[in-house]
Amino acid sequence: MGKLLVKNKDLVVPGEVLVEGMDYVPGSGVFREGEMIVANSVGLVSVDNRLVKLIPLTGFYAPKKNDTVIGKVANINFNGWMIDIGHSNFAMLSLKEATNEYIDKKADLSKYYDFGDVVVAKIISTTKDGTSDLTMKGPGLNKLVNGRVIEVASTKVPRIIGKQGSMITIIKTKTNCKVVVGQNGKVWIQSENPEEERKAIDIIRFIEKESVKEGLTEKVEKLLK
C-alpha cells in the first residue's frame, strides 16, 4: 500500500520524499526514484486522486507548444518578426503565420506589425533551447492596441484565470476592462477609464500575492464590490 507523506498544498523542497510505494503517479515537478516520488523543485504539493505534482513558486517562463502568449515586436527581418515573449530567446512569427492573407517578401512588414507593437499569439513549436515559432492565425490572436501590459509570475497565471476562466471573468465584469492573460506571465489590460485599469491591475497584483491562500475568489469578489 502506497503512503502519502505530505498533505495537499504543503510546501516542499528539492529532494523531499512525497510518496512511498507505487500507488501514486508522478506529475510535473516530481520524479520517481525506485518506489518513491521525490520533489525536484520548490513548490506546493497538489494531490488529485492518485496524481501527485508540484505547483512551482518561482521560475522563469519555459515556452510550451499551444501556449497563448503576449509579446512585443523586437525586430523585423525578411522572414518575419522577432517577438519578445519574456524568454532569453526571441520567438519567430513568420510571414505565413502572421495573417491569413498573402504577404509578399518585398512588402513593408512594419505596416502589419511594427517595432514595439504588442501581439497575442500562439506557440506552434519549440526547440530544446526554448526558441519558439508563433502563429497569429486563430480566434483571439491579434495585435493589442492601447491598454497596458503588466508582468506577473508565469506560475501564477492559472490562479489569475481561475477554473474554467472564473477568476478572469470576475475581473473583467467588475472592472469593465478588457483583459488578456498570456501564459508567459504578461497581462494586457485596456479600458477607456484609467481608474478601472488601475483597479484591474491592483486586483491582479492581489491575486498574484495571495495565490496560495484559501478562499481567494470570495476575497476578490469582496474587494471588487
Task: Characterise the protein shown here.
- By secondary structure, the chain is an alpha+beta fold.
- It has helices at residues 95-98, 157-161, 166-175, 194-209, 216-223; strands spanning 3-4, 11-12, 17-20, 25-26, 30-33, 36-39, 43-48, 51-56, 68-77, 80-84, 91-94, 118-126, 132-135, 143-144, 148-151, 178-181, 186-190.
- It has a five-stranded mixed β-barrel. A four-stranded antiparallel sheet has the order 1-3-6-5, with no helix packed on it. Strands 2-7-8-4 form a four-stranded mixed sheet, with no helix packed on it.
Gyration radius, rounded: 20 Å
The structural domain count equals 3
**Architecture (CATH level 2) name of the largest domain:** Beta Barrel
Structural class: alpha+beta
N-C termini distance: 49 Å
Helix and strand run: EEEEEEEEEEEHEEEEHHEEHH
Annotation, overall tally of beta strands: 17
C-alpha geometry: flat
What percentage of the residues does DSSP assign to strands (E)? 25-35%
Annotation field: number of helices: 5
* CATH fold assignment of the largest domain: OB fold (Dihydrolipoamide Acetyltransferase, E2P)
The CATH class of the largest domain, by name, is Mainly Beta
Supply the CATH superfamily name of the largest domain.
Nucleic acid-binding proteins
Give, in spatial order, the strands making up the sheet with the most strands: 9-10-11-13-12
Largest sheet: 5 strands, mixed, barrel
Specify the helix fraction band: 10-25%
Mean pLDDT: 92
The parts where pLDDT drops under 50 for at least 5 residues are none
